Amino acid sequence: MGNLYAKPYHDFNINQKLSLQDFKLLGNQEARVDQVHMHGYSKTKDFILESSINLMFTSNSLKNIINNAEIVRKNLMSLNCFENISVNIDVSSGSNSTPNGYKVTFNVQELTFASSILHSVARDNEGIVKLGFKLNNITGHANHFKIESSIGNGGTQKYDACISKHIPGTISSCISGHIFKKKSYWNTVHGVFDEWGTLFDLLFLSPYKSHFSQNLQYEGVIRDINMLSKESPFKLREESGFSVKSSIKHITTIDTRDSKVLANEGVFFQMVMEVAGFGGDVKFLRNYFTSQFYSKITKDVVFQGSFGGGVLTDLGTFKKVNMMDRFFLGGPMTLRGFQSRGIGNLNDNVVAGVTSYWVSAVHIYVKPLFGMESNRINEAIRLHLFCNAGNISFFGKDTKSSLERTFKGFRLSTGFGVVARIGNSIRFEFNLCSPLQYSAGDRIVDGFQFGVGANFI
Amino acid sequence: MADFKTSSSILTKECLRTQICGEGEWPKNTVIYQPYETEQILLPDNSKCLSVKTFLKMAGLEFIVEARENAEYMSPHRGKVPFIKAGQFLVADFEPIVSFAQSKGYSLSTSLDETQKWDLRVYMALVNNVLLNAEIYVTWNHELTYKELTKPRYSSVYPFPLNHWATYNKRREMLSHLDVLGWKKKSLDEVFKEVERICESLSNFLGDKKYFFYEKPTELDALVFGHLFSIITTPLLNNRFAATVRAYDNLVQLCVRIETEFYQSRIL
Fold this sequence. Notes:
Chain A is mostly beta strands. Chain A contains six helices and 19 strands. Chain A has helices spanning about 20-30, 45-55, 60-75, 235, 375-380, 400-405, and strands spanning about 30-40, 80-90, 100-110, 115-125, 125-135, 145-150, 155-165, 170-185, 190-205, 210-225, 240-255, 265-275, 285-295, 300-315, 355-365, 380-395, 410-420, 425-435, 445-455. The longest helix of chain A is centred in the first third of the chain and has 16 residues, at about 60-75. Chain B is mainly α. In chain B, strands 2-1-3-4 form a four-stranded mixed beta sheet, covered by helices on one side. In chain B, helix 5 packs parallel to helix 9 (about 220-235). Mean pLDDT of chain B is about 85; it is low at about 1-5. Chains A and B meet through strand 10 and strand 11 of A and helix 3 and helix 7 of B.
């Protein structure tokens, strides 16, 4: 948060401290912004900032001014050009001032030209350390360049070079292009996945309501599947070798949660639609979504309900979609009580990744220091009780039987454990799980299970 | 569940052991995987596939041939084709397949005495070292052949940009293989001289015999047939490679003999 100062209107006594009531009165009073000043930037071009700042001139009351100032501050921060921004609101004086006029000053501090990257993220049950460097605001048009390498504790390696540019406007957007090389492992079947690819991403953010965003992506990637062991299931081995995916992806995200990891209230919904087959040799249509709903039952108890699912339609004739495209279910952050990708019999000649799935969860979170005011422990750690259900299936032509199969023999597990939050995006879980319903061939975890990640159900 | 799991894993181990030790049980539905013959396969791979198929036919072992465009990536030893799937076992390349069959009690060289067995091993190593490398040299290192034949064939199964990428990778791998063995710097003439020399020694060893070791075919016959037959029948830019081999009449006769005896359908 920037510093927010408000000086009283002429009629008030300057020395007197404002009471809340006065402030409310003042807030609703008609006001206009006469001047907006920006201090402290040298490299950033004016027109990049203008469109964000224009919002200030639409405000009509002091309350409005304060709200808009915060939005503008957030928008400016999202340009990734500034280290911090403080806001100063004052009555305007001088010859050009109007009776209800205000003057808003943004004091900004620009990021240095080059800086290093060192931070950790979590993905797919793996903690990842990122190292690299970035060049900020190269030409002053809010364009950035970065190179980073990531190494995860499960062996995942990723090298990524990214160039991005913000385009300010009423719909603020960000274009970025990536070139990456990734190596990941699936240890249960001794599989190594190599990827070399490019990704172009167009992100649209509605600037006034930052919880709604859309991404339009193009991804062209060469994939290589290598099965290292002779014990890898032969069905998976048959898919090894090179393939090219060229796809367009659309991601819609609505996120009104108050925290990304341990929310108290809010809704999260993400829908991904992907069409592959613009060149390349795999063709498919893939849709999947995740939704989370949070509600506070009492001050210390939070309810979470989640549901997700996906369908993949193979459009290919000669070459089929392979295991890098299909869905896998199971893992400590999705269907707890099962190993990562642990659902479905691998030796079975059919189930090696599926074309449709659904998964759901119900959580009851309790703050560990019951009844106490919010403090650090209550913010970072929660106890939870969960119940997971989900299933994998192959969608056939016959809708009725497909629907029956979708729910026949679904997997069910329950348990309790501790959830912790590290930073604002990493979630740790340590659970005692008990799978209640499962099929032969599922790789279950009956006991303690540890999970780390950013996406969860 | 835990009890079931351990008992089942013990059972699997037991199964494996009986499969390893069980003699005289060639697994049914043995499949041999190889690249597509007409549009994809290259000379070195073709020779090896033919050698393996000939060996299995000579030993009277049943198999089904399956062509896959990613056969070399499916192989348990990446890049080596063909490979066989016999029951639960995956075995790649000629010599491991021969020793796998041997472990099952199928061998073509049991009747040989010690010195003959040594001869067999020496000549097999020679064929692998010279003929195979010469084939790799011609396919990947000879610029014109690479451009005109190897690249279009190898990349035929891939879309853009993978056709360039995969071929480039494969070529780099093959060239480094040749480099390690000291073949990369050789000229084409030197390579053909090597081929000539081995053909000569094979020809002398064969003499007027029906097979290398008198009346019955051995692994060496299968290997030599696979290579020579491929070299003779594969169309290359010029027929110098084939002509070098064709100069040795008794070797060609050996190929014809094996061909008529084990592959009735084809004509040399």
